Amino acid sequence: MNDNIAIRVENICKSFGDGDSFIEVIKDASFTINKGELAALVAPSGTGKTVLLMMIGCVNEPDSGEMWIGTEKVFDNRWLTKETRKIRREKIGFIFQAHHLIPFLNIINNLILLPQTNKTDEKTSKAEARKLLRYFGIADKEKAMPSQLSGGQNQRVAIARALINNPQIILADEPTAALDTQRSVDVMKILKKIALEQEVAIIMVTHDDRMLPYCDRIMKIEDKKIVFV
Ligand SMILES: Nc1ncnc2c1ncn2[C@@H]1O[C@H](COP(=O)(O)OP(=O)(O)O)[C@@H](O)[C@H]1O
Ligand SMILES: [Mg+2]
Known about the structure:
Helix content is about 30%, strand content about 30%. By secondary structure, the protein is α/β, with parallel strands linked by helices. The protein has a single domain (about 5-229), classed as P-loop containing nucleotide triphosphate hydrolases (Rossmann fold, 3-Layer(aba) Sandwich). The strands form two sheets. Strands 6-7-8-3-9-10 form a six-stranded mixed β-sheet, sandwiched between helices. The chain has a four-stranded antiparallel β-sheet with strand order 2-1-4-5, covered by helices on one side. Helix 3 packs parallel to helix 5 (about 150-165). The longest helix is centred in the last third of the chain and has 18 residues, at about 180-200. The two termini are about 25 Å apart. The structure holds adenosine-5'-diphosphate and magnesium ion. Magnesium ion (MG) binds near residues 49, 50 and 173.
């Protein structure tokens, strides 16, 4: 197996409902994303972008097919581990349109929540959190509450939170949709830099064509399959 591959998907299928409410969303989708690659996922609303991301993120179970995260095969018509949560915690970072920071925890405590769940001690996780805050130019905000930060600053914190466990993959579902153009471009530059410097594979759903020049590849969903344009 090529160890440059971060995500490999073979023939995954996903449908919902039955009878009149049956809907086939993804059918026999196959693709690979390499380490260090920033891929955009662009497709009309309701075509399965979030469903696809949540399957890769080991949140939603595909109906059939195979999936690998790095060299680890995680799905072969069923999960190959009972601990999909462990895969998520250790290998995958999620970023959403809303930052989903915990409003009653300050910035640094928001950042160290996940590492503490993974049993990293507080001193180590705080040091890592401070490093990320410096990297994102918001080191002075560690004691601030999310409500005291701007939308762009909170989204940087959310990206830092996604990075804190050194994930192999970042899945970003419309991370710039709530930001103005300048803040969106800032976020794109950060994602690009992370992909390059940390060899993380990033799949980012976006509706904004202005973000595409920052991406290495553009994926679309066509006829329930993934195509690259
Ligand atoms: N849990 C679910 N139960 C039933 N249908 C769902 C569920 N999740 C998604 N769908 C359907 O799958 C299709 C794709 O949804 P989604 O991935 O959210 O689209 P988008 O491309 O806008 O992110 C939609 O028709 C949606 O209604
Ligand atoms: Mg969606």
